[in-house]
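Need residues for this backbone.
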């Protein structure tokens, strides 16, 4: 008789699985090694937008609606061709032109997120896998809400326990989309709260609001901080240089911009002209949004702001854009965390925060009415400044600069990062507490 422990098969539905640079991908993809170590054999069902995993059973499927096809094909083409090449331009143009009539008709009739139609092929494929592979748990992670709906349909058909991981609030006060998409998100939230064997959210606030809307959720709903896997900094360590480097990583938008940090930086330079040429704000991952661009031009910070945009592979060193970003993160004097300024921010914690913790570098953060995020920042030795408080931001930036000048800014060695391994253990412990896992009859 074999001593090899039995592998328990889970079906994992995640639209963005293995999709580089996406928080929705990292949240679930980083869990895979730890699930495997704990005896779980995940069978993955995802879109074709990410890289196919060569070591797991990984099925990639396309949606059927034009909006979803347009999104997916844009990323598939980007994987095959350089974005500056003629082949890329021709391929993308061909698909856009070919899909346009159908895309226009869909947009006139259906006003949902572009991934909505992925649920149907995911349901069909997932149902076949459940019957063939003796799946014990269905796990949906989103990202795209269509993964949850497909998982619900499969669970209803098969009777297999369904667990759901909700990344962002499904409905909230600041709903900028259509009545149709709001209605669907509200309905799907109700489905999860009524029918999922367990469901978890990433902040206390969103969980509390969801439970208030759906008291039937009860103990099946809980909050778990997602964390991230330990980044590979390639043994790069921080060393104080002759320039104070304040770095921001990630996307920007009119509601999440660098206007206040730029104004604060400009005030510091006006008060301390001796610091000109010694302080730089580096921006990675995106160009400046319209509001940041306007402040950038008005304040005359051209010599103090360096916009790197999205980094590509370095042909000289062979380092990927991701590796360059990690090394820049690890070697910055201070990391800038911009939360935003809308009601939505009260219910989410930027995934970049968990990555920042691994660097052990000081964080200059501007949370927006989010006590949980403030508490996490303070627990890591940082001083949060509420969004919109430019005076407070200026004072904290000046304090960090003066400390850098006098004693330097050493790593926060006592910081406890939130690891994915710990997240997986907390999830499995909660599932065991609820009697969902391990299944007694498996």
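Answer:
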């Amino acid at each position: 008789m074999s001593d090899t422990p039995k592998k328990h098969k889970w079906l994992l539905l995640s639209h963005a699985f293995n999709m580089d640079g996406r928080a929705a991908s990292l949240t679930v993809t980083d869990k895979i090694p730890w699930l495997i170590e704990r005896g779980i054999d995940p069978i993955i069902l995802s879109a074709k937008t990410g890289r196919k995993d060569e070591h797991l059973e990984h099925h990639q499927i396309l949606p059927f609606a034009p909006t979803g096809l347009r999104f997916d094909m844009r990323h598939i083409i980007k994987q095959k061709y350089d974005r500056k090449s003629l082949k890329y331009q021709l391929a993308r143009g061909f698909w856009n032109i070919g899909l346009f009539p159908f895309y226009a008709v869909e947009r006139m009739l259906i006003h949902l997120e572009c991934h909505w139609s992925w649920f149907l092929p995911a349901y069909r494929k997932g149902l076949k896998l459940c019957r063939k592979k003796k799946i014990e748990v269905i796990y949906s992670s989103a990202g795209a809400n269509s993964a949850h709906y497909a998982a619900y349909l499969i669970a209803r058909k098969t009777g297999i326990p369904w667990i759901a991981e909700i990344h962002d609030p499904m409905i909230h006060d600041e709903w900028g989309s259509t009545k149709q998409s709001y209605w669907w998100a509200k309905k799907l939230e109700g489905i999860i709260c009524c029918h999922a064997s367990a469901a978890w959210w990433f902040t206390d606030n969103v969980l509390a609001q969801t439970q208030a809307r759906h008291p039937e959720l009860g103990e099946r709903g809980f909050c778990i901080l997602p964390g991230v896997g330990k980044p590979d900094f390639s043994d790069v360590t921080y060393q104080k240089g002759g320039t104070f480097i304040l770095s921001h990583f990630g996307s920007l938008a009119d509601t999440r911009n660098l206007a206040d940090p730029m104004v604060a930086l400009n005030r510091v330079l006006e008060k301390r002209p001796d610091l000109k040429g010694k302080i730089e704000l580096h921006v990675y991952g995106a160009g400046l949004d319209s509001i940041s661009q306007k402040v950038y031009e008005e304040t005359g910070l051209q010599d103090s702001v360096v916009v790197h945009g999205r980094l590509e592979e370095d042909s000289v060193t062979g380092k990927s854009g991701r590796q360059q970003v990690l090394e820049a993160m690890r070697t910055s004097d201070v990391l800038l965390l911009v939360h935003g300024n809308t009601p939505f921010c009260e219910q989410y914690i930027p995934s970049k925060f968990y990555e920042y913790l691994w660097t052990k570098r000081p964080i200059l953060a501007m949370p927006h009415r989010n006590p949980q995020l403030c508490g996490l920042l303070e627990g890591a030795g940082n001083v949060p400044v509420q969004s919109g408080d430019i005076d407070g931001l200026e004072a904290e930036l000046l304090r960090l600069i003066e400390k850098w000048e006098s004693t330097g800014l050493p790593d926060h060695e006592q910081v406890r990062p939130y690891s994915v391994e710990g997240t997986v253990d907390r999830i499995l412990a909660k599932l065991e507490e609820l009697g969902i896992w391990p299944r007694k009859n498996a």
